[in-house]
Amino acid sequence: MAWPSYDPGQFYDEMVAVSGRPRSEAEALWRHFSELGPEALAERQDAADREMRAIGVTFTVYEGSTGVDRPWPFDIIPRMMTSDEWHTVESGLVQRLNALNLFIDDVYHDQRSVSAGIVPSELVSGSPNFRRECVGVDPPGGIWAHICGSDLIRDADGTVYVLEDNLRVPSGVSYLLENRMVAKHVFPEMFRHYSIEPVDPYIGRLANMLASVSPSTGDPTIVVLTPGIYNSAYFEHAFLAQQLGVELVEGSDLVVLDDDCVYARTIDGLQRVDVIYRRIDDLYLDPEVFVPDSMLGVPGLVRAWRSGRVALVNAPGAGIADDKKVYSYVPDIIRYFLDEEPILATVPTLRCSDDDSRHYVLSNLERLVVKPANESGGYGVLVGTQASADELEQAAKQIEGEPKKWVAQPIIPLSTAPTLCDGEIAPRHVDLRPFTLLGPDGAYVTRGGLTRVARVAGSLVVNSSQGGGSKDTWVVDTRRANPPPASPEPPTEANAVNAADTGPLDP
Amino acid sequence: MTESAPTNHRTDRADRADLPTRTERNPVPTPAGDHDPSLEPKEPTMLLARMAEAVYWAGRYLERAEGTARIVQVHTDTHVDMPVGEDVGWEPLLAIVGVDSEFAERYSAAVEVDDEGAAEHDVIEFLLHGEENPSSILGSIASARKNLRTARPVVPREAWEACNNLWLASSDNLAEAATREGRVLWLRRVIAGCQRINGILLGTMSRDEAMSFLTIGQNLERADLTTRVLDVRAENLRPNQGDSYDEVHWMAVLRSLAAYQPFRRAMPARPQGGSTLRFLLQDDRFPRAVNACLTESRSQLKGLARSEDALDACAIASLIVASAAVPHLTLGGLSEFLDEVQVALDDIHRMVDETYFRPTFVGWQPESVAS
Q1: Strand A66-71 relative to strand A269-273: parallel, antiparallel, unpaired?
Q2: Considering only alpha carbons, which residue of chain B is nearest residue A250?
Q3: Cα separation of B167 and A115, whole Å?
Q4: In this complex, do B48 and A253 lie within 8 Å of one another by their Cβ atoms?
Q5: CB atoms within 10 A of CB A297
Q6: pTM as predicted
Q7: By the CB < 8 Å criterion, does B205 face chain A?
C-alpha cells in the first residue's frame, strides 16, 4: 500500500477529496510526501522544531499563576487554498469588517440600528462590552476596529463560516509570519513549484494603516503598548514592534499631561505619541475610567483619545461587536448598513436569554456547543458530544443560573487537514485565523491566515492555550505553477543544520 | 564573444570625453518644491528610557559572561603550569568576579573541610552556574537574554536569536562542564557565542542611540573587569620573586583579558608587572585596556544629549588612570589605586543611570509642555 495512507472519514478535508485523491492544487505536494517518505518528513519536522526554538518563537501558558514559555508548535504540512477561493473569503471579510465598524460607530452615536429594530436595545446597553465613555467619540474615518482576527471554519460540505470576529486585541499574526519563514526552509522546493501568495506585506500595510490614523501632521510617533513580559502574547508584541520599527511601551512608559496629549518617557525627556497599537484589554487601559487599580494602563489615556490627541488601535469599545450574541445579528447588520447580502456564512446561534432557545438548548445540550458570550481563547467552551454527564449537568446549571451569559451553536464538523502525528500523516481538525486591516485609506487581508490544528485525534479544540498546534497556510495561484520538483532532494545533515541555524555553539 | 560585447561597448562610450554622460545630460529629475517625505528619515526617532537601560545592561551582562569565561579558562590553564607548593588555588577567581562573600555563604561548611580538588569543583560550579551567584556565567547570559528580549524592538533580530541560542546551548550542555576537558569546550563556546553576538551587533546594528548605550555598557563592564583582574592577580596572588614563574603569572593576567598578543605587539619588554600594568591601564588602542574603554565611552556619550555629567565623570576616571604611577604601583598601593578607578567607573555608571534611565529626573518634563 502506498504511503501515506490517509482517510479523513466523513469530514471535509482541506487537501484530499472524497475520492481519496488529493485535490488538484495539492497533487504535487502529496506526491512529494510519498516520494520523501516518513523518515525524511520526520527529519524536516525536527529541523523546523529546532528552528522555532532557536529563533525564540514562544507562547506562554499559565500553570496556576506562573507563566511558562513554550516553543510554538508548528506542523510542517501546510494547509492549502486556491487563490480563487481565497479572494471570495477576502471580500467577505472586508465586507464584514466594514459593516461591523458602521455598527460600532452607530452604537456610540444615534443607534439607528436599534431604532430600526435590527438589534435589540438590551443587546447594546446591556452588554459588558458597551463603554459609555465612548459615546459620541469620532475616531478618524469612523473606524473603531482597525484590526480584526476572524476565526473561520469549514463545514462538512465545504462551506466557510465565520465563527468569531475578534475585534479587541486579536493575536496570532506574528506566528503566521514566523510559520511562513520556517515553512520556506522546510519545503523550499515546493515554494519553487507553487505560486504561493506572500504574507510579509502585512507589516507594511499595518504600518501604513497605523500612520493613517495619526492625529498629527508630519511623521507620526507610533508605539505598541504591551501589558509586559508576563503576558501570554508578549512574544508577538515584541515581534510587531521590531517589525514595525517602533517602540514597545508598557503603561509606565507613558504619561498623559494636562494638555491631554500622551508622552513617552524617552532618554531625551518626554516625547509626544500619536498612535498607540494597544495590546491591553479595554478595562485595563486607563485606571481613571476603567479598572481603577490597573497597573498596566495609563491614567488619562481615554481622555487623550476622546479629545482626539492620540489614536488607539483598536479603539476602546470596539468589543461591543464581537460579543457572541451580537454575532448572531451580523448578517442583518451587513444587510442594514451595506445593503448587501453577506458573502460569508454565519453559524446559527441560539441566545440562552431567549426562553424558547434556552429550552431547546437545555434539552439538546449533548448535540450543541455551548459558549460563554464574552470570552475568547476557547475558555469555557463545552462541546456537547464530547462532554461527560457531569459536565453537561454543570453546564445546564450555569445556563439556568445566568442565561444571558451563554449562547449555543450546532456542532460544525470542522474540516480536517493532513497533519504529521507520530511519523504518520493523519487527519486533524483545523480552523483558520486571517487578519483584516481597515483604515481610512482602505482594507487589507492577509493572504491566508494562521491555520490552527487540534493535535489530538477527533478533538475540535485548536487554541494554542489548550494544546493546539499550527500550520502555514498556502494560498496558491493554480494558474501559475512551475514544474514540480523532479525527485526529492535527499535531506542531508547540512540541510538540517542550515535550517535550524543553531550557530557555532554546536560542533 | 557576444557576452562581453555590450560591456566593452559601454566602456568605450563612457571613455569618450566628447559625449556627455547620462548624468550631465539628463540628471535625475528633482522637481523643485516636490518634497517626498517618504525619502527622509523619521523625525524624531525615539528611544524609551526603559529600552536604553535594557540595552545598556545587555551590553554589561554579555561582557561579564565573556570576561568571566576567559578568566576561568586562563586560570584553569595556568593552574597546571604553576610549581607544586605555589598553587594559588581557586579562591582568587571568586575575588575577581566579586562573589567571595556569596560563595562563603553557600559553601561555608564545605570549603574548610574539603581538600583542594573539591574546592575547584565548588568554585567552578559557582562561577559557571551557581544559583546563588547573580554574576555566574550562565546567570549573566540569562540576564543578557532577558534584557535583549525586552529590547528586541531596538536590537537586530539576529542578535537576539544568537543570544537565545547561546543561552539554550549553554544550559543544555551544562553537564559537560563538570570535567576540566568539558569545561574548556563549554567556556570556549560561551566566548564564541558572545563574540558572535558582538559581531552581529557590529555588522548589522545602526549606530543609533541604542547602540551607544550598549557600547557604553560593554566598555564600563570591560574596564571594571580589567581592574578586578589586575587587583586580584597583582596584589594578592603572588609576591614578585624574580623567577620565570613571574612571567608565567603576568602572561596569565594578559591572557585572561585576551591581551597577550596585543601586548607583545605594542610593548618592547616581556610581560612584567610594570609593563603589564602600563598596558592594561593606559593603552589607548587595545579595547580592553581601561583607557581605551574610557575613550570609547566618552565618544559614545558625546553623541547623546545631556551627557555633560557623565562626560565629567568619564574625564575624572581618565585622569586617574593617566596618573597611575607605574611601575611604582607594583611595589605597593596598587589595590588602593584600583579601588579609586573602580569608584570612578561606578560614578560614570551612576551618571548614565540618573541622566537617562530614572524617570524622576527633571529632564522628564520638557520645556514645551512645562507651562
Answers
A1: unpaired
A2: B50
A3: 61
A4: yes
A5: 27
A6: 0.85
A7: no
